[in-house]
Design goal:
It contains five helices and five strands. With 132 residues, the protein is α/β, with parallel strands linked by helices. A hairpin with a 2-residue loop joins strand 4 and strand 5. Helix 1 packs across helix 3.
């Protein structure tokens, strides 16, 4: 009985996120390259590095949330670079990430914060604010 309750509760909790995913599009990002990252750092821009896997449900939810947040004027100058967790293992390692769904923000050359697996709008927005 506990398993059924858990499954129903989980489904109820995820329903608003599924609706949001249908209503919104995923974030717009640029594939990570060392040159793009360095150029953004040199320019002192706020940067989000999203370590993403196409098969990851958490990454998909983050992408939808980021798509909405990045429409806000406060984040218009944020440079978004997406690292492919499966194909860019050297970059994943360079950032010290152990898993996909890792979001890292930089204020110029300085890492300002990171989160792993966060799928809350408020949590991700708070993270982005550390970079701007």
């Amino acid at each position: 009985m506990l398993t059924r309750r858990f499954a129903l509760g989980l489904a109820a909790a995820l329903l608003p996120l599924a609706r949001a995913a249908l209503a919104s599009g995923p974030m717009t990002s640029t594939p990570f390259s060392a040159a793009a990252f360095k150029a953004a750092q040199e320019a002192g821009k706020p940067i989000l590095v999203a370590i993403h896997a196409g098969w990851c449900p958490t990454c998909k939810i983050q992408s939808v949330i980021l798509g909405d947040l990045l429409k806000k004027p406060a984040f218009k100058n944020l440079v978004v670079l997406r690292v492919d967790f499966d194909d860019q293992k050297d970059i994943v390692s360079k950032f010290g990430a152990d898993t996909q769904s890792t979001l890292i923000v930089f204020k110029g050359k300085t890492e300002a914060g990171r989160t792993v697996g966060d799928t809350s709008n408020d949590g991700i927005e708070t993270l982005l604010k550390l970079a701007v």
